[in-house]
Design a protein that fits this description.
The complex is a heterodimer of chains A (197) and B (361). With 197 residues, chain A is α/β, with parallel strands linked by helices. Chain A contains 5 helices and 7 strands, in the order H-E-E-H-E-E-E-E-H-E-H-H. In chain A, the strands form 2 sheets. Chain A has a 5-stranded mixed sheet with strand order 1-2-5-4-3. In chain A, strands 6-7 form a two-stranded parallel sheet. Chain A is extended and about 80 Å long. Chain B has a 3-stranded antiparallel sheet with strand order 1-2-3, with helices on one face. The chains are: A alpha/beta (197), B alpha+beta (361). Chains A and B meet through strand 3, strand 4, strand 5 and helix 3 of A and strand 6, strand 7, strand 8 and helix 12 of B.
Amino acid sequence: MSILADDLEQHLLAAAPAGIQFRTTTDAKSVTTGWCTLADKEQLVTAAALLKALCARLMTITIFQPKAPPAPAVKEGETPPPPPTFFGGLVNDGKAYEVSYHFDVDGDALTLTIHVPGGGDVESLTPLFRNADWPERELMEIYSIKVRNHPDPRRLFLDPRIDGAVLERLIPFSTMANSASTKGLWEKIMAQTGSKS
Amino acid sequence: MSNFTIPVGPLHVALEEPMYFRIDVEGETVKHVDINAGHVHRGVEYLATKRNVFQNVVLTERICSLCSNSHPQAYSMAIEQIAGITVPERAEYLRAIADEIKRVASNLFNTGILAHLVGFESLFMQMMQVRERMQDIKEAVFGNRMDIGANTIGGVRYDIDAPRAEFMAQQLDLMVPEVDEVIELFKTNRSILTRTRGVGVLTNEQALDCACVGPVARAAGVSYDVRVKAPYACYDKLEVPVHTLPDGDVWSRAMVRLLEARTAIDLIRQCLADLPEGPTVATSERPPIPAGEAIARCEAPRGELIYYVRMADSPKPERVKWRVPSFMNWDAVRIMMQDAKVADIAIIVNSIDPCISCTER
């Protein structure tokens, strides 16, 4: 018997009236996992408040940029099909973020997912769930997403001198290693080949 | 009374891994703690998206050495859910055995370090000696003392034959009185009790508020253990007692760890007695992994470990995210240190059994 209430879907829909996509799976050990995608990212806070009232525990937050599906070949004269979208209507252009909030409800897991346009923002859950603090700080440093009303929006793991959004940029190895190894290697090669610097 | 700001770390004799604490003290009393992390941030989550599903079993084992079995186990469980692979029953038992072996070694290591920090060096050495039996078992069964490489997608990579089972049973029989002796010492020895009783208190309410996990939460009366609440492997078939204590101090956390180490020995014995016959892996070939997403959780020695995996149409995962138990418990350290004595800082930090390379990935 699942701990997730049977009418949880109705309650979540009431908390996020713009629309939800809800499904559950139960494994062989009777552990239920619920997946709920919200159409409107602004209704995350009301949905999370509902879970808080159910004594849910925020386990962690996942963020990533789903890859856009390849554009279909369009023949001349035909109108191209509309671009693929996420639930809720946001275009999947490869820049949008998918942010998943994983909750635990006394052993069962429930994931709330929202989609945020590239460089967009999301409301902080830290006032509701104290432990959202670190995961939200991590979101802000690995992607250029902004978390509104975060009480302490400092860097978490990365030094403030490093440019943010590290997972959105290609960082050459020589830049990452501060050219330290490359310069030494370069000088060695120059010395061996006898070239003048 | 004078106020100071003292730095502890990033490199400090009492810390095994780098972490920086900026501590405001008033006389001898800690007034405010600021934690600065990131000294061993390696970007392993990024690396996981550059390797294929099977290579990641090896990668995740190398995130941390003390809970090195829990990472590939939770990761494999997530992939098995996506691909709909059913793990054979024998493999489920073998997974639980590997899990519990690591738990005994990890918990004895942490409580042994506590004995060292309170200056009880002979007890520290005695506990490391007890732990050494577990290391011997690991070496005999897995061929390795830390990264045991037990898990693979669809099952396990090792098996226990009769001579090995006999060796394990014999070592466990020798360990039980030794662990009981250590537990008794922790309950009665004055130098341990005076340094750890009532120190670094985390109340039940605060533990729930910080969403603490593992022995840190259970020592504050939060009865949550993934093995019981969301069973995996063969834990639904085993008797798993959940040890909770009401006080939430350094001593309670050490005691919960010792009791769990003792319980883990019983669980290994249960598993060895019930070990069913059969294959140890679902398929001998590498199964195709379809697109999908899954969450998997397991109880690492430090508490709940959660993996989220998203697969797209590629052999490489689109995202692998994990949250280790230590990540949740750092916030609680700031509460525990409030109004603590400067001399107790190291003991309090050690009491959450911090794993920094896990936290920062």
